[in-house]
Recover the amino acids of this structure.
């Protein structure tokens, strides 16, 4: 009988050695220690044994049973530990590893200067307006006193769509939209992109940026215009800037002026940006033409106003001493990365 028990144990140990999962382990446990297992059989058969053997066999069976139970438990711990170790190995993260440094972008210098100027004007009581890039002939030309056959159109050749729409050549179109929407007295600015057919060079691009301004009230005169422009420039450049006012012609103002500032790239010595003159045309301006007020539904007998157009790209070039306007639209991050 003892021999039989030893054989059961040996079989059991052989099966157990092959077990590699918890499920297999449970199967082996059921086969050897379950109700239909060989140990249970031995116990059931104790009755038929002679009295002297009964105790010895019963005891031996119990010893083997508890040895099997112990071996099963040991195997269980071993398998569970292996499962945990495997999980740890597969889900391992190195928390000491540095994250790749993320690149933080920055505003384009034209946007930066635009927002700064918007702040200066809003602090002076101006309202900021927007207008569409794609305009009608009416808003871009007709309502600004530039009829179809007017030679001033030559200087503002643009891009035309089949349906008659055009890319706006100047932010002056925003003046007309402003007059239609706001009753005088008002002070407005309208920044944005404008487009022209240009032969590009160091100071000309086919797409560039302007900021339009318009003030309409009773008794507005040239002194108000000059004062506003001087305040603006000293705020932008944080110092006194040399300026000169020349007569200039624009169909939508009368009288019209060109406001120039002395070139900050070359300190007025003469360079490619100022066409060797030492002066840079910065701000055309003037008193709003009565025809323009009329086309905006404003009575020129009652109201007068001044208007100006500021070239934002040029201002950026002056401030950061950029020698070629084409850098601004180059899309080269070695250039734009310098303005963080
Ligand atoms: N719109 C003109 C241009 O792009 C600039 C301009 C001139 C705007 C005189 C004005 C102005 O408001 O009064 O050439």
């Amino acid at each position: 009988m003892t021999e039989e028990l030893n054989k059961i144990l040996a079989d059991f140990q052989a099966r157990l050695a092959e077990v590699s999962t918890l499920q297999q382990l449970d199967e082996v446990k059921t086969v050897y220690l379950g109700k239909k297992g060989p140990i249970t059989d031995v116990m059931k058969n104790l009755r038929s044994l002679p009295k002297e053997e009964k105790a010895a066999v019963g005891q031996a069976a119990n010893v083997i049973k508890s040895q099997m139970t112990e071996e099963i438990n040991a195997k269980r711990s071993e398998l569970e530990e292996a499962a945990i170790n495997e999980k740890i190995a597969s889900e391992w993260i190195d928390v000491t590893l540095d994250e790749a440094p993320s690149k933080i972008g920055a505003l384009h210098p034209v946007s930066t200067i635009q927002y700064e100027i918007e702040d200066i004007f809003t602090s002076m009581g101006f309202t900021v307006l927007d207008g569409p890039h794609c305009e009608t002939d009416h808003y871009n030309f007709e309502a600004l006193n530039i009829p179809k056959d007017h030679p001033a159109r030559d200087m503002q050749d643009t891009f035309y769509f089949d349906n008659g729409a055009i890319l706006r050549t100047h932010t002056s179109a925003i003046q007309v939209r402003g007059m239609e929407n706001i009753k005088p007295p008002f002070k407005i600015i309208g920044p944005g992109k404008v487009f022209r057919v240009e032969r590009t060079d160091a100071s000309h691009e086919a797409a560039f940026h302007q900021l339009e301004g318009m003030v309409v009230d009773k008794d507005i005169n040239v002194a108000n215009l000059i004062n506003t422009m001087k305040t603006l420039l000293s705020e932008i450049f944080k110092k006194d800037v040399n300026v000169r006012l020349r007569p200039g012609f624009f169909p939508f103002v009368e009288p019209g002026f060109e406001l120039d500032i002395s070139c900050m790239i070359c300190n007025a010595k003469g360079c490619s940006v100022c066409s060797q003159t030492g002066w840079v045309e910065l701000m055309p301006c003037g008193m709003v033409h009565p025809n323009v007020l009329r086309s905006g539904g404003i009575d020129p007998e009652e109201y007068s106003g001044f208007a100006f157009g500021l070239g934002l790209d040029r201002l950026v070039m002056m401030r950061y001493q950029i020698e070629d306007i084409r850098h601004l639209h180059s899309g080269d991050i070695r250039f734009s990365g310098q303005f963080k």
Observations:
- DSSP finds eleven helices and nine strands in the chain.
